[in-house]
User: Fold DUF47 family protein from Streptomyces poriferorum.
Amino acid sequence: MRFRLTPRETSFYDMFSASADNIVTGSKLLMELLGADSASRVEIAERMRAAEHAGDDATHAIFHQLNSSFITPFDREDIYNLASSLDDIMDFMEEAVDLVVLYQVDELPKGVEQQVEVLARAAELTAAAMPNLRTMDNLTEYWIEVNRLENQADQIHRKLLAQLFNGKYDAIEVLKLKQIVDVLEEAADAFEHVANTVETIAVKES
Assistant:
């Protein structure tokens, strides 16, 4: 890591960690949704909405700190991109839960649980990686594994689409379910964006 002669604002690290921990909360709510009945899904959606609002607050706190800090721990653009990508993950997970409730989906197609499992694993890895931004240590395995998970998510998504278009579902149901699995795929993409941003930061700081 480069030697710096100036002090750095360190509260960003804690805020990134808080944002990532909140994403873990969101991923657990997604897991909870899978086996829930209709009434329970409404309550889970409310908790997910609260978690998404907490994510927004965390993101706004980072932006406020960014705008008021003269010295930052790494490039301002990278701080902005990392905070935005973390926020995107939470937005997509909340949207997926909300769509399940709004569309009154009785049964999710087989394979969605695999999507959610990938997201849960990516959330755990991301939360574990954020504290390491302080030292830039032990991050390589993180972004390699998240990129692997995103490739796995792509494969699951393609299989789900093939399943949706095999004639088992009527046209309206296909539209509903496709939107849900597409949003979950966007969440996986957002995890990869976070990992790629962390890799960019680590390369610059090396």
About this structure: The radius of gyration is 18 Å. The mean pLDDT is 93.
